[in-house]
Each structure stands twice: as structure tokens, then as C-alpha cells.
Design brief:
Length: 310
């Protein structure tokens, strides 16, 4: 049986997480299909067809899927689940909303947040905020999996020549309806897809200082801005910038942490970053234990100096 990846898309483009999930699916099974659900999603289907390694793209296109309501998306996945041994979602808010519904209806145990495929039925996943790695084996005939995207390289977005089939969308479940959506407008890269992230902690002291110090650095580097939970809880930065166990899991090429102590819950969200630079005035700060470059300095001096040197 093949593996099915549930794509995340916004009608014309695919979310970057889908590419990492395809890599995980290819490790589960040689033949990978991608399901694109939505209304007027044909363009996103064509984008998916170009992903290297994907054999087939199925586009379920219809009004019931326009707003990606979890009940309807889950019904669409279930309608075709019989053909697949592995059904993979990105471990994003969207994937985590649908996958448990699919697993429950199939009466299988979901395998959550995998970071490695050991074999087609055995997977690794972090536990205890990433301090231990569990190896889990599923004996279920169908594996419903969420993929921690930072654990897998992105599949090349180009180079594939998958065939594209259009499916009839399932009818509306009637269990939920779309009321509205408030989308945060952000000119910066999305946190989970950014190549560079500059993150600020409690040491910034206020929302004004957070913006005054972190924004110019982010602007110079073309980076996304992140924050520790302490900075978010204190109102220095909005909730959706939080990095960590209860925030976003990120693994950019470069992560700069300024005035962040390095609590395990923060490290759980960023320690897989390729290059970590930490600025902290306390030379004993735990963040230095994961940093590639450690700068024991006052961030209010160091960050503007770095900025002016760029
Ligand atoms: P602090 O720990 O107060 O550290 C501030 C640091 O700034 C210190 O190291 C200090 O030396 C340094 N500093 C002070 N002044 C300066 C200066 N002028 N220049 C340079 N350095 C300076 N936290 C997260 O971040 N993300 C999560 O997702 C998360 N989830 C959690 C989930 C649970 C269940 C729990 C219990 C906690 C969670 N936390 C999370 C909170 C976490 O335990 C820490 O409290 C938090 O990460 C601390 O944030 P901080 O490093 O900004 O602040």
C-alpha cells in the first residue's frame, strides 16, 4: 500500500511543512500520494505534482472543503483511507486538528510528532520536552502519523512529475460552519518556515524595548521574530511569536537568542536550529550549552552593535 500525505495549502501555494512531510512519507513507503483539499485548489494540486518523489496528487475540490473545516477534511481523508497503509499529516495546528479524527474513526492509535522513520512500523518521537526520544512501534494495519517537520529535510519542491486526479469532494458534515477568520498580517517570514529567527526574552523589559532592539536586527537579516514564553506572558511580544514546547517548534539555519535563559521548555522548540547564537549577560546561562556562538554581554549594547556592523 502507498503512503498518503495531507497537504496544507492556501489555494495557490503549498505550506512548506508539506515538503518535510513528503520526506517522512517516502521513508515509510516508496510510493507517495498527496491529497490536496480545498475549493479552487487545482493550482495547489499542480504545485504538489512538482514535488520530487510524489507519484500521484489527488485534488478534492468542492465548497465543503473551502474553509478546511476539520470535520469535512477528516471525512475526505476517511473516504480514501482504504487505499493507504500510512496517512501522514504535518504536526501543525491544522494537521493536529484533523489527524486524531481520522485515527479515531479508523480505530487506530495515532503516532504523534515523529522525528524519524526507523522502519515502516517503527518511529522515533521526542518526549519530556525533547529530553528523551521514544522509539514506538505500531501494530495497526494503518498508521496515522503526525510529522514534526523540523525532523525531516524538505523534499525538493521541483523535479517531480506526478499525475493529478480530481476527486469529488465529500458533502458538508453539517457539524460545524465557518464564521470568520482573523489573519495576522505579517511582512516577515512565517516563524516555522523562516531561515533566520531572532528571538527576544524577558530581559527586553517592555514591548517598546522589544521592538526597538529586536526589530532592526530582524530587518537587517530578513528574519522572523520569535520570543520566549516569559516575553509573551509579559506582553512584550504577541502569543504567535512564542517559540518552545507550548509555542512553535522551529529549526532555522540561524537562531539568535537575546536575553533568553534557555529553559528546557524554550530549548524544546529551537535546539534543532542549524546554528545557534546566544547573547546573555550571565556567562552561566543554560542557553550557552546549546549555542554554537556564545556572547556573554548586555544585549542592549551587543544587539545594536551587531546591527550596525551588518
Ligand atoms: P528568564 O528565564 O527570566 O531569562 C532571562 C535571561 O535574560 C536571563 O538568563 C538573564 O541572564 C538574561 N538577561 C537579563 N538582562 C540581560 C541583558 N541586559 N542582556 C543580556 N541578557 C540579559 N518558555 C518558552 O520560552 N517557550 C515555551 O513554549 C514554554 N513552555 C512552557 C511550558 C510549561 C509547561 C512550563 C512550565 C514553562 C514553559 N516555558 C516556556 C517557560 C520556561 O520555563 C521559562 O520560564 C521561560 O522560557 C523563560 O523565559 P526567558 O528566558 O525569556 O526569561
Amino acid at each position: 500500500m502507498s503512503a498518503l500525505v495531507i497537504a496544507e495549502q492556501d489555494h495557490t501555494t503549498l505550506k512548506a511543512a508539506t515538503l518535510n512531510t513528503v520526506t517522512a512519507a517516502l521513508a515509510c513507503d516508496g510510493e507517495v500520494h498527496v491529497l490536496v483539499v480545498g475549493a479552487n485548489a487545482a493550482e495547489a494540486g499542480q504545485v504538489a505534482a512538482q514535488i520530487a518523489g510524489v507519484a500521484k496528487v489527488l485534488v478534492a475540490d468542492g465548497a465543503s472543503l473551502a474553509d478546511q473545516l476539520a470535520e469535512n477534511v477528516a471525512a475526505q481523508v476517511l473516504a480514501m483511507a482504504g487505499n493507504y497503509g500510512h496517512i501522514l499529516f504535518s504536526a501543525t495546528a491544522s494537521g493536529k486538528n484533523v489527524a486524531p479524527r481520522v485515527a479515531a474513526k479508523l480505530d487506530v492509535a495515532q503516532v504523534s510528532d515523529i522525528t524519524k522513520v526507523v522502519s515502516c512500523d517503527t518511529f522515533e518521537r521526542p518526549i519530556y520536552a525533547g529530553n528523551a526520544i521514544a522509539t514506538v512501534q505500531s501494530t495497526d494495519a494503518k498508521k496515522v502519523i503526525t510529522v514534526r517537520t523540523t525532523g525531516f529535510d524538505a523534499a525538493p519542491a521541483l523535479g517531480g512529475t506526478a499525475i493529478v486526479e480530481t476527486l469529488e469532494a465529500v458533502s458538508d458534515s453539517g457539524k460545524s460552519s465557518f464564521v470568520g477568520r482573523e489573519v495576522t498580517k505579517n511582512d516577515r517570514p512565517e516563524l516555522t518556515a523562516a531561515k533566520i529567527i531572532v528571538s527576544g526574552g524577558r530581559a527586553l523589559g517592555s514591548a517598546e524595548k522589544f521592538n526597538e532592539v529586536m526589530t532592526p536586527l530582524a530587518d537587517k537579516l530578513g528574519a522572523a521574530i520569535g520570543a520566549s514564553r516569559a516575553a509573551v506572558d509579559a506582553g512584550y511580544a504577541p502569543n504567535d511569536l512564542q517559540v518552545g514546547q507550548t509555542g512553535k517548534i522551529v529549526a532555522p539555519q540561524l537562531y539568535i537568542a537575546a536575553g533568553i535563559s534557555g529553559a528546557i521548555q524554550h530549548l524544546a522548540g529551537m535546539k534543532d536550529s542549524k546554528l545557534i547564537v546566544a547573547i546573555n549577560k550571565d556567562p552561566e546561562a543554560p542557553i550557552f550549552s546549546v549555542a554554537d556562538y556564545s556572547l556573554a554581554a548586555d544585549l542592549f549594547v551587543a544587539v545594536p552593535e551587531i546591527c550596525s556592523s551588518l
